[in-house]
């Protein structure tokens, strides 16, 4: 709606996990590098945690885009709040497209065949569980742990990546036999003010705009109310561009952002 007014080719602040718009702050780079390292070295299990809206899902999608299809088979589970058996069936379906509806033993046998088929095809199997803090069935965590037993003498046959909110850490502390299997961990925090400014400029540039649109005073206000959380930053900036367009303003000023925040007090 407002894109042509500001000289944009597309909307820069959509809250979707588009890897093209991943701003690689020092934290985001480190998170991505650790995930890639865990996969390339077949570390077994890697965990990424972070506050709501900090970019965990976008990082996971960027990770997938970096893994060549010729070398990897990837299962992405986005809604893991299901029973242990259904979770195993979902992983198989995401890896192969096979809808196996038999019992647990048959599911495990099928899964075992898939892993060995991938290995023989010189492909690594990667399982990504997004929103892993939603898993409420203790048995589901036990099944995920047991998947790590699929290994040869010198390597794991799969890499399990858990992505979730901070409470995932607390849950796994109560399951030490699982927590001890996690080879790498990383926690993603909110952006600093300097990183937020670069983040906003980066997304504007990716959407086709190189000039400054938000005034320095507006940026300070955005940081104050967003607390450096990308999802909140996106919401405020998107509405700021919309209101600025409706007012035919040359810039998104502090007053425009203040009006946006008053209308959207939940932010």
Q: What does the model show?
A:
With about 270 residues, the protein is an alpha/beta fold. It has 2 domains: about 160 residues, Rossmann fold (3-Layer(aba) Sandwich); about 70 residues, Helicase, Ruva Protein, domain 3, CATH 1.10.8.60. Helix content is about 50%, strand content about 10%. The protein has 12 helices and 5 strands. The chain has a 5-stranded parallel sheet, sandwiched between helices. β3, α6 and β4 form a beta-alpha-beta unit. α11 crosses α12. It is elongated, with a radius of gyration of 21 Å. The two termini are about 20 Å apart.
Separation, N- and C-terminal Cα atoms: 22 Å
Low-confidence stretches: none
Shape: elongated
Would you tell me which CATH topology of the largest domain applies? Rossmann fold
Biggest pleated-sheet summary: 5 strands, parallel
Number of domains: 2
List keywords for this structure.
single chain; 267 residues; Rossmann fold; Helicase, Ruva Protein, domain 3; 2 domains; 5-stranded parallel β-sheet
Describe the SSE topology.
Elements: H1 3-6, H2 26-40, E1 45-50, H3 56-66, E2 72-77, H4 84-96, H5 104-120, E3 124-129, H6 138-147, E4 158-164, H7 167-173, H8 176-179, E5 184-188, H9 193-206, H10 216-226, H11 230-246, H12 254-263
Parallel strand pairs: 1-4, 1-5, 2-3, 3-4
């Amino acid at each position: 709606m407002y894109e042509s007014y500001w000289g944009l080719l597309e909307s820069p602040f959509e809250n979707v996990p588009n890897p093209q718009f991943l701003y690689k702050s020092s934290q985001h780079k480190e998170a991505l590098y650790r995930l890639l390292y865990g996969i390339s070295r077949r570390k077994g299990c890697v965990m990424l945690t972070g506050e709501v809206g900090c970019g965990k899902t976008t990082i996971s999608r960027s990770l997938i885009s970096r893994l060549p299809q010729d070398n990897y088979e990837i299962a992405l589970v986005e809604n893991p709040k299901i029973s242990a058996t259904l979770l195993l069936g979902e992983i198989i379906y995401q890896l192969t497209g096979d809808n196996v509806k038999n019992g647990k033993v048959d599911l495990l046998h099928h899964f075992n065949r898939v892993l060995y088929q991938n290995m023989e095809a010189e492909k690594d199997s990667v399982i990504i569980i997004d929103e892993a803090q939603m898993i409420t069935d203790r048995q589901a965590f036990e099944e995920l742990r047991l998947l790590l037993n699929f290994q040869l003498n010198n390597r794991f046959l799969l890499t399990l990546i858990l992505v979730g909110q901070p409470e995932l850490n607390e849950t796994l502390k109560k399951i030490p036999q699982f927590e001890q299997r996690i080879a790498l961990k990383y926690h993603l925090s909110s952006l600093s003010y300097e990183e937020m400014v670069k983040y906003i400029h980066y997304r504007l540039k990716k959407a086709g705009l190189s000039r400054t649109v938000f005034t320095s005073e507006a940026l300070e206000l955005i940081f104050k109310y967003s607390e450096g959380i990308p999802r909140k930053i996106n919401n405020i900036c998107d509405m700021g561009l919309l209101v600025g367009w409706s007012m035919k303003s040359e810039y998104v000023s502090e007053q425009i952002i203040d009006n946006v925040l008053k209308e959207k007090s939940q932010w």
